[in-house]
Amino acid sequence: MSYTAEQNNAICVEFFETAWNTGVIREDLLSEDAIDHSQVGGKTVSEPGSGSFKHIVGMFRGGMPDAAISIEDAIFAADKVVHRWRLNGTDTQGIMGMPPSGKHISMTGTTTVRLADGKIAERWANVDELGLLQQLGVVPPPPGAN
Amino acid sequence: MSELEKNKAIIRRYWFELWNEKRAEVLDEIAIENVVFHFPQGQAHKPATLKIWFETALIAFPDVHFTLHDELAEGDKVVSRWSYEATNTGTFLGRETTSIKVTDLGIDIFRIENDKIVEMWVAQDSLGLLQQLKVLQ
């Protein structure tokens, strides 16, 4: 059966809202060899399978157990879905191995997903890691940033 | 040509004719003067206009070359997933030239009205860029 772009978007909304808001990775919505190409947290190798999805969600939800995603825009055509999103949460447990800051974090990102047969097959993402580190007070804004 | 194909063609001119061929005059043909930018909070370089962005980027990275990996169009939006390679042979953020080769990956969303770019949402890895340039560890 083939899926429309609208159905593909609905699958992505379901998968990512569940993942970011509850920490559960819906393996039934992931291809067996699904691959997350994002390089967030300095990742250089992307292994196929649900592990890399669990890793990235865990990296942020582990630090911010109240994390919640808001999908601000969705653009989809054929087998691709793009989401522009914002993740809000409170850093009570420490993000990416840093000590907890107690700060409220609001971080933006854009994700492209390729679907195959109604399942997520590939994900590419840009996450505003510099903005995150600035909010945590770990790095100053670069000169001329604003 | 369908509206979606026309919009994709405008964005291809943005990457190939403007950035790769460095043809500044293309800017007026494909974008309004005051494109509305949405930068991530942590964007290293937040120029006021697309023209200033193009000019200051070329001072810092005159050989910048983009590769377009994916494009999709829906409604009045076009999304590009891109990468670039560049050499820092001019001043960037007020710093001395380093001659360091840098690379980045990003996903940009463009909104088009009357065949011109009017709004852009940028998502790139400024942390990675500043680390490559040794501004940050």
Describe this structure as you would to a colleague.
The complex is a heterodimer of chains A (146) and B (137). Chain A is of the alpha+beta class and 146 residues long. Chain A has one domain: Nuclear Transport Factor 2, Chain: A (Roll), CATH 3.10.450. In chain A, 25% of the residues lie in helices and 34% in strands. Chain A contains 3 helices and 5 strands. Chain A has helices spanning 5-22, 51-61, 129-135, and strands at 30-36, 68-77, 80-90, 104-116, 119-127. Chain A has a 5-stranded mixed β-sheet. In chain A, a hairpin with a 2-residue loop joins β2 and β3 (80-90). The radius of gyration of chain A is 15 Å and the shape is elongated. The termini of chain A are far apart. The relative contact order of chain A is 0.20. With 137 residues, chain B is an alpha+beta fold. Chain B has one domain: Roll (Nuclear Transport Factor 2, Chain: A), CATH 3.10.450. Chain B has 4 helices and 5 strands. In chain B, strands 1-5-4-3-2 form a 5-stranded mixed β-sheet. In chain B, a hairpin with a 2-residue loop joins β2 and β3 (77-87). Chain B is globular.
Quick synopsis:
The complex is a heterodimer of chains A (146) and B (137). Chain A is of the alpha+beta class.
First and last CA, distance of chain B = 48 Å
Biggest interface goes to: A-B, 34 and 33 residues
Q: What proportion strand of chain B?
A: 35-45%
Measure the end-to-end span of chain A: 49 Å
Rg over C-alpha atoms of chain B, rounded to the nearest angstrom: 15 Å
Please state the average pLDDT score of chain A: 93
Query: Which shape of chain A, going by the Cα principal axes?
Result: elongated
Q: What letter string, H or E per element, gives the SSE order of chain A?
A: HEHEEEEH
Helix content of chain B: 25-40%
Output the helix-strand order of chain B: HHEHEEEEH
